[in-house]
Design brief:
Immunoglobulin-like; 2 domains; 4-stranded mixed β-sheet; disordered N terminus
């Protein structure tokens, strides 16, 4: 009788154990999605013919499944940024948010209808967006968001290629904004830094690989310093192209970029014209 009672008790206890295990499993990671985060940084490849290029960004959206209705807002900066301030490593954070882990195929920048302009000397010209601000700037990023890890997305807004002069002095100067933006995962990039000597040469600095210009900036006009950011690992030619007529182009070949590091070239002497 004692044996039968013990066996009966064990048979009744087993479903409780199994049920508890199922309950705990349902309260685990299955019902609470894994979360990571994304930070979006805006920086610039400069333009030499303007004093300011202002772009007004209303909001930033991401799309995980690639469908037309799959967009969700992750930030609403609603601010105007002078792209020419975002050179040599300077940047603005457009968004910093927590996201469910997974691969996000696209991001989109929605611009405001007003606040987009270019300043040349003492004149300000509106930048017309041919496609309209509602369409936004769509970028394919395939950002892999992982649990507990911050994914930093670098957006290189190339002002020199994005601003198109469509008018003339007689008929009226008109400028179009046709955004050219490159998106790069910071985790797979490195940087190149240096100092242009003399400062008076005022060079535009290019990172070139296989005859393609992959990044550019303008050396600081006060101390000659420059930084080329968001470069994938590899070998580059760094070309300093003076804006002052008295100086020649100076190329430095075989410059290595390593992920997560900044290759500081130190002072680079720019020769005068012969």
């Amino acid at each position: 009788m004692k044996y039968f009672t013990k066996r009966l008790f064990n048979s009744l206890k087993m479903p409780l154990v199994i049920g508890s295990a199922l309950f705990l499993a349902s309260c685990g990671t299955g019902s609470n999605p894994q979360m990571g985060s994304m930070q979006i940084r805006l920086h610039d490849a400069p333009i030499d013919s303007a004093d300011a290029v202002n772009v007004s960004i209303k909001q930033v959206e991401v799309n995980k499944d690639g469908s037309a209705g799959g967009w969700s807002v992750i930030s609403t900066p609603d601010q105007t940024y002078n792209l020419l301030d975002l050179a040599n490593g300077a940047y603005e954070v457009l968004g910093d948010t927590t996201l469910e882990a997974g691969t996000y195929q696209q991001i989109r920048l929605i611009l405001n209808d007003t606040g987009n302009n270019i300043v040349i000397g003492d004149k300000t010209y509106d930048l017309t967006i041919p496609s309209g601000s509602q369409t936004g700037i769509k970028l394919n990023v395939n950002a892999d968001i992982q649990e507990g890890i911050q994914y930093v997305l670098l957006l290189d807004f190339d002002a020199s290629r994005s601003v198109v002069h469509a008018g003339n002095a007689q008929g009226g100067n008109k400028y179009l904004l046709k955004p050219v933006v490159k998106a790069t995962n910071k985790a797979v990039t490195g940087n190149i830094a240096g100092v242009a000597d003399p400062v008076d040469a005022r060079p535009v600095v290019y990172a070139i690989a296989d005859s393609d210009t992959l990044a550019s900036t303008v050396a600081d006009t006060t101390d000659g310093s420059f930084m080329l950011v968001g470069l994938k690992e590899g070998t580059y030619t760094v070309s300093l192209n003076p804006r002052a007529d008295a100086y020649q182009v100076k190329d430095t070949t075989g410059v290595q970029v390593t992920v997560g590091e900044t290759n500081d070239l130190g002072s680079i002497s720019i020769p005068q014209q012969q």
